[in-house]
Amino acid sequence: IRQSNKSRKSECYVMDKGNKMKNLRINNRFTAELPADPDLTNEVRQVKNTLFSYVNPVKPSNPKLIHASEEVVDLVGISKDEIHSEEFLNIFSGKEILPESKPYAMCYAGHQFGNWAGQLGDGRAINLTEVENNNQFYTLQLKGAGKTPYSRTADGLAVLRSSIREYLCAEAMYHLGVPTTRSLSLVLSGDQVLRDVLYNGNPAYEKGAIVCRVAPSFIRFGSFEMLTARNELKNLKQFVEYTIQHYFPEIKGEPKEQYLQFFQKVADTTREMILHWQRVGFVHGVMNTDNMSVHGITIDYGPYGWLENYDPDWTPNTTDRQNRRYRFGNQPQVAQWNLFQLANALYPLINEAAPLEKILDSFIIEFDSEYKEMFLSKLGLFTSSEADDKIIKGLEEILQLSETDMTIFFRNLSKIKKDDSVEQAFEKVEYAFYIPEEIKGNVLDAWQKWFAVYLKRLNSELLSDEERILKMNQVNPKYVLRNYMAQLAIDAADKEDYSLVDELFQLLKNPYDEQPEFEKWFAKRPDWARTKVGCSMLSCSS
């Protein structure tokens, strides 16, 4: 099926039967319907009056497939028996271009760490194409595939360590029930990439790699910020209407009403995403507006991390070490701040502040209400009580009196039964303490008082212990991708041993199941990982 570019309609192609990926349905809606950069040179520059630039991936010297997700391969319309074909390797390493596709890098701007950064764009990401499968559309994007006009002073490449972290984390998040991009493939490029891991003046060569990631689109808050900042209001209107038409077809009404509905949808899905982050203890690390998706999905896995010990002030990003803007406890507020920037970008189309402000004001109010409900579900409390606020606040405070593993604490909390004594209940969560000898005196007294209140509240619940355990274990994961786990897989992969990449990939497909064969991963962060590079804090270097 083909439609002319002149009609500004999307182009759709079914792959030629001679090609092994014969079922892949190419659809170039983004490039067919939106303004393109007329300059085809791949030189770093300011790109104006456009949404994207055509650019081809750099050809890797000796690509090698490390891993591929059969689920995601099937999702986009590729048969599983094609995974180990030469065509698959060549296409998802960037060595070959899919017939009838037009790879491109998106132009966008954004606020970084609260400051306006101007033009940013896809500096190390290249969109291969859009595909259609089972009436759903997906964008296939290579991260680490080479320089684009938006690479600034960088080379557009990525290294193996960051690629493993992104590949594993996106799939882990999906199976945790967190809205996210997906990972299709992880490929070694065969080339060396120079990186300064800690930005301390000690660069070194590392193995290069490419991840193919998948999303409905990679449209960001910063995409709209850029157009408004440059006063490209015609393009702004066209882009917002394009986004609504293709990704929010349920939105109807007059144009201004549609724009407000669009902003409300983005706010709602963003709130849901952040709620899931807080539920599982995930810290994004770089919540810049250019890293925020209009689909309310987690994108751009850089220096992320999961809370080991419960600490609302923790951030995994070395760049954010001083101000901790993107710390765990501040993620809801940052999301609201980012939405405020999106509201400013949409304002020229609406010309009324009040309806936008109403949506922004309700964001935290609704988040707080939903957060309380979520937190109570983690505690196994599914009815309301006047004591609930005290229980939640009390627990958040005592979890910080001594290092307490968040994941282990909440998972083991489900083992408590209604007829347990305070002492018995406490014993069932003791394994979560990193320094058990600190749990004495006032700290122990605080825990015992909290458990006394909690047990009394637990006995007011109508669910049986067995029913409650099942529900608690559906919201409290047993396994998450702790930084030390990812680092172990990275260290092994550096030695060409990819077995841990696959083991963690399989483990994290069922994070809420007991999986006794993987019990070794239900463990606190080991002491050696407390300060090890890649296990405590990370830089944006990739």
Would you summarize the structure shown here?
By secondary structure, the chain is of the alpha+beta class.
How is the secondary structure organized here?
Layout: E1 12-14, E2 25-27, H1 29-33, E3 52-54, E4 64-68, H2 70-76, H3 86-91, E5 104-106, E6 109-112, E7 115-119, E8 125-133, E9 136-143, H4 160-176, E10 182-195, E11 204-215, H5 221-229, H6 233-247, H7 255-280, E12 282-283, E13 305-306, H8 331-350, H9 354-378, H10 388-398, H11 406-413, H12 422-427, H13 441-458, H14 465-472, H15 483-494, H16 499-507
Antiparallel strand pairs: 1-2, 2-8, 3-5, 4-10, 6-7, 8-9, 9-11, 10-11, 12-13
Features:
542 residues; alpha+beta; seven-stranded antiparallel sheet; two-stranded antiparallel sheet; 16 helices; 13 strands; 37% helix; disordered N terminus
What's the rounded overall pLDDT mean? 94
Q: What about the largest sheet? A: 7 strands, antiparallel
Beta-strand proportion:
5-15%
Q: Would you list the SSEs in sequence order as H and E?
A: EEHEEHHEEEEEHEEHHHEEHHHHHHHHH
Low-confidence stretches: 1-9
Secondary structural class? alpha+beta
How far do the termini sit from each other?
39 Å
Q: What is the number of beta strands?
A: 13
DSSP helical segment count: 16
Tell the overall outline: globular
Residue share in helix: 25-40%
Radius of gyration computed on alpha carbons: 24 Å
The oligomeric state of the chains shown is single chain
